[in-house]
C-alpha cells in the first residue's frame, strides 16, 4: 500500500505536469495566434462604440496595454488569469472573467449530464449485447450503435429541433436561462445532453460488448453459475467489473469530441454557455474574450480527462499494483 | 511482411469460381456512387443552373413546383439549385482537405517512422498534443488567423486532420521499414527521400486511402458545423451549413429549406463513411504486427 502511495503520487505529479504543460503551451499559442489576426484589435470596439478620435485611440491602446511589448502583454495577461482576471471585454460591458463565471456552469452541467446519460444508456446496452452476443438483442443494439455513431450530433440536433417544431412543440431552444435554478436548467438541457450522449454511448457499447464477451467466456463464469448465481449477477457483479476498465480509456478519448460537441449544441439550442460565448466573441472580434474562452474550454476538457486518468488506478487493481512497482 | 492481403470470404470452403453477392463490395460502390452523384448534380447545377441561384426569381417561401423543384427561400431564390451547388462545395472542400491532410500526413508520418530517434519523439509529442485538443477549437483559431476564404478553410481542415494521418502512416512504416527490401535499398545506397517515397509510402497506400476517406467524412461535418456557426463558407457562396443556420427561423412554415441541406450533409457523410468501409474491405488490411 505504501508502495502504491508513492507510485500514485508520482503518477499524479506526472499527469498534472503534462496537463499544465499543455495548458501553458496552449496559452502561448492562443495569445500569439490571436495577435496574428490581420486588422486592428480594437476594430470590434469601434463597431460598437463608434469611431473615436486619435487621442482616444491612443488612450484605449494604453488602457488595454496594446502599446507595450508582446512579452510584457503576455505575462500581464497570464498573471491576470492566475488571479482570475481575464481582462476587459472589448464589446460587452462586463469583464471577460465575469462572463466566463456566468457561462461556465452551463457548459459543465451540459457536459456532465451528457457523460452521465451516455453511461446510463451505454452500460446496460453493452452488457445486454455482450450477454446475448449474435442474438436478437445484440443485433438490435448493434444497429442502434451504428446509427448513433455514424450520424453527426449536429444533424441529430437539427432533426430533433425540426421535428419538435412540428409535433410536440416543447420549449427546447433558449429554454436555459440565468433566471432558473440548476435543477430547472438541467431539465431544460436533457434533450441537448441526450443528443451529445448518443454517439458517446455508442462508443461505450462497442467496447463494453467486446469486453463482456471476453469476460463471459472465461472459466470463472462456470464456477459462479455452479454456485447458483443468476446471469444478471454474473454479468453485473463480476463480468462488468473487468469489462468496464477499457471503457474508461475510451471516455477519456471521447471527452475531446464531447467538449467540441458542446460548442455546437450550445449554439443550436441557444444555451448561454462557453461555446456560445466563444462564437459570439469571434463574430464580434473581441480578442480578450476569444483568448479567455478558448483557454477555459480547453482547461475544462483537460481537467475532465485528468480526473478520468487519476481515477483509473483505483478501478483497475492491476494498474494499481503496476503504479506501485514503476 | 506483416501485411497479409486476403480476398474476402477466403476462409469459406465454397469454390471461388462464381462471383457471389458477398463478394461485391456494396459499401464501396454505394459510397462512391453517392459522392459521384452529388458531384455530378453540383457540376450540372453550377454550369447549367435550373434557375439563377443569386436572383429572386420566385415568390417568398414558395412550395415545391415544376419550376422550383424544392421551392424557394425567403427572398425567392431557388432552393434546389442552391442546395446542389452547396453539395458541390461540400464535396470539393472535403476532397481538398483530405488530399492535403494525406499529403502532409503521409510525408511527415513516413519520415518520423523511418528516421525515428529524437525527431520522432518530438513530432509524436506535437501530434499527441494536437489530437488531444478538441478539433473545433483548433480550427476556429486557424480560421481567425488565416481568414475566412474557401482556400483558408481547406488549409485549416488539412492542418487539423494531418496529425491523425501522421499517426496511422507512422505505424505502417514502422512495420515496413523492417522488411528486407528496405534493408537492401539502404545497402545499395538509395537516399532517404527515395526510400520514403518509392519504398515505404507505396506500401502504406491502402491505409492512406482508408484514412483519407474517413478524413473526408469528418471534414464534411466540420465544414457544415463551421458554416452553421458563421465561420465556414461565407455567403453568397451556397453552403449547406450556412443554409441550415439561415433557414432555422422558417422551419415552421417551410421545412424543406432545412431538410434539403441537412440531407446533403447526411448523404455526404454516409457516402464518405461507406467509401472508407468499402476501401477497408477491398484492400483488407489485416495487421498482425501492429495492434490497432
What's the topology here?
The complex is a heterodimer of chains A (about 325) and B (about 290).
Chain A (H helix, E strand, L loop, with lengths): L1 H35 L6 H7 L4 H10 L6 H13 L13 H36 L4 H15 L2 H14 L15 H7 L1 H27 L3 H7 L4 H39 L4 H10 L3 H29 L1 H9 L1
Helix pairs in contact in A: 1-13, 1-14, 5-6, 5-9, 5-11, 5-13, 6-9, 7-11, 9-11, 11-12, 11-13, 12-13, 13-14
Chain B lengths: L2 E3 L20 H22 L31 H37 L2 H15 L2 H12 L3 H27 L3 H8 L4 H37 L11 H7 L9 H28 L1 E3 L5
How would you describe the overall organization of this protein?
- The complex is a heterodimer of chains A (about 325) and B (about 290).
- Chain A has about 325 residues and is mainly α.
- By secondary structure, chain B is mainly α.
- Chain B is about 65% helix and about 0% strand.
- The longest helix of chain B is centred in the first third of the chain and has 37 residues.
- Chain B is elongated and about 75 Å long.
- At the A-B interface, helix 1, helix 7, helix 11, helix 12 and helix 13 of A face helix 3, helix 4, helix 7 and helix 9 of B.
Task: Give the number of helices of chain B.
Answer: 9
Name the average pLDDT of chain B.
Answer: 83
Number of helices of chain A: 14
CATH class of the domain at 100-298 in chain A: Mainly Alpha
Share of helical residues of chain B? 55-70%
Overall pLDDT confidence of chain A: 82
CATH architectural grouping of the domain at 100-298 in chain A: Orthogonal Bundle
The CATH homologous superfamily of chain B is termed MetI-like
* End-to-end gap of chain B: 17 Å
Q: Give the helix/strand class of chain B.
A: mainly alpha
Amino acid at each position: 500500500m505504501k508502495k502504491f502511495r508513492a507510485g500514485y503520487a508520482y503518477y499524479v505529479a506526472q499527469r498534472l505536469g503534462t496537463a499544465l504543460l499543455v495548458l501553458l503551451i496552449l496559452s502561448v499559442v492562443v495569445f500569439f495566434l490571436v495577435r496574428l489576426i490581420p486588422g486592428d484589435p480594437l476594430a470590434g470596439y469601434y463597431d460598437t462604440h463608434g469611431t473615436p478620435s486619435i487621442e482616444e485611440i491612443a488612450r484605449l491602446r494604453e488602457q488595454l496595454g496594446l502599446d507595450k511589448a508582446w512579452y510584457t502583454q503576455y505575462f500581464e495577461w497570464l498573471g491576470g488569469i492566475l488571479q482570475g482576471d481575464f481582462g476587459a471585454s472589448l464589446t460587452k460591458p462586463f469583464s471577460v472573467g465575469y462572463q466566463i463565471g456566468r457561462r461556465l456552469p452551463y457548459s459543465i452541467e451540459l457536459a456532465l449530464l451528457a457523460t452521465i446519460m451516455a453511461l446510463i444508456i451505454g452500460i446496460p446496452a453493452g452488457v445486454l449485447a455482450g450477454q446475448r452476443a449474435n442474438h436478437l438483442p445484440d443485433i438490435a443494439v448493434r444497429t442502434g450503435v451504428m446509427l448513433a455513431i455514424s450520424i453527426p450530433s449536429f444533424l441529430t440536433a437539427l432533426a430533433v429541433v425540426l421535428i419538435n417544431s412540428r409535433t410536440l412543440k416543447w420549449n427546447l431552444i433558449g429554454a436555459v436561462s440565468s433566471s432558473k435554478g440548476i435543477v430547472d436548467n438541467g431539465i431544460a438541457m436533457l434533450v441537448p445532453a441526450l443528443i451529445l450522449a448518443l454517439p458517446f454511448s455508442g462508443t461505450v457499447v462497442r467496447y463494453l460488448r467486446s469486453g463482456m464477451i471476453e469476460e463471459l467466456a472465461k472459466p470463472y463464469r462456470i464456477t459462479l453459475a455452479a454456485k447458483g448465481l443468476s446471469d444478471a449477477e454474473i454479468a453485473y457483479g463480476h463480468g462488468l467489473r473487468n469489462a468496464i476498465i477499457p471503457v474508461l480509456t475510451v471516455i477519456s478519448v471521447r471527452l475531446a469530441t464531447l467538449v467540441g460537441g458542446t460548442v455546437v449544441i450550445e449554439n443550436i439550442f441557444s444555451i448561454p454557455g462557453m461555446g456560445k460565448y466563444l462564437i459570439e466573441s469571434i463574430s464580434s472580434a473581441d480578442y480578450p474574450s476569444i483568448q479567455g474562452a478558448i483557454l477555459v474550454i480547453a482547461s475544462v476538457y483537460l481537467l475532465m480527462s485528468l480526473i478520468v486518468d487519476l481515477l483509473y488506478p483505483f478501478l483497475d487493481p492491476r494498474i494499481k499494483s503496476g503504479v506501485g512497482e514503476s | 511482411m506483416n501485411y497479409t492481403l486476403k480476398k474476402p470470404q477466403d476462409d469459406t470452403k465454397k469454390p471461388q469460381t462464381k462471383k457471389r453477392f458477398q463478394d461485391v463490395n456494396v459499401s464501396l460502390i454505394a459510397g462512391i456512387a453517392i459522392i459521384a452523384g452529388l458531384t455530378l448534380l453540383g457540376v450540372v447545377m453550377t454550369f447549367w443552373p435550373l434557375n439563377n441561384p443569386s436572383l429572386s426569381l420566385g415568390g417568398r417561401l414558395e412550395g415545391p413546383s415544376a419550376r422550383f423543384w424544392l421551392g424557394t427561400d425567403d427572398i425567392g431564390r431557388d432552393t434546389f439549385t442552391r442546395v446542389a451547388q452547396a453539395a458541390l462545395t461540400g464535396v470539393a472542400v472535403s476532397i481538398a482537405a483530405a488530399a492535403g491532410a494525406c499529403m502532409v500526413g503521409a510525408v511527415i508520418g513516413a519520415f518520423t517512422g523511418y528516421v525515428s530517434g529524437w525527431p520522432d519523439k518530438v513530432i509524436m509529442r506535437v501530434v499527441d498534443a494536437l489530437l488531444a485538443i478538441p478539433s473545433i477549437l483548433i480550427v476556429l483559431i486557424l480560421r481567425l488567423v488565416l481568414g475566412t476564404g474557401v482556400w483558408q478553410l481547406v488549409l485549416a481542415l488539412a492542418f487539423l486532420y494531418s496529425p491523425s494521418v501522421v499517426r496511422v502512416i507512422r505505424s505502417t512504416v514502422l512495420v515496413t521499414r523492417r522488411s528486407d527490401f528496405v534493408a537492401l535499398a539502404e545497402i545499395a545506397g538509395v537516399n532517404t527521400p527515395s526510400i520514403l517515397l518509392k519504398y515505404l509510402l507505396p506500401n502504406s497506400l491502402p491505409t492512406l486511402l482508408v484514412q483519407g476517406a474517413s478524413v473526408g467524412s469528418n471534414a464534411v461535418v466540420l465544414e457544415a458545423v463551421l458554416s452553421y456557426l458563421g465561420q465556414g463558407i461565407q455567403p453568397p457562396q451556397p453552403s449547406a451549413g450556412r443554409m441550415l443556420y439561415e433557414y432555422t427561423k422558417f422551419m415552421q412554415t417551410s421545412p424543406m429549406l432545412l431538410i434539403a441541406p441537412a440531407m446533403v450533409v447526411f448523404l455526404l457523410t454516409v457516402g464518405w463513411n461507406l467509401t472508407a468501409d468499402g476501401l477497408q474491405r477491398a484492400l483488407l488490411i489485416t495487421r498482425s504486427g501492429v495492434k490497432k
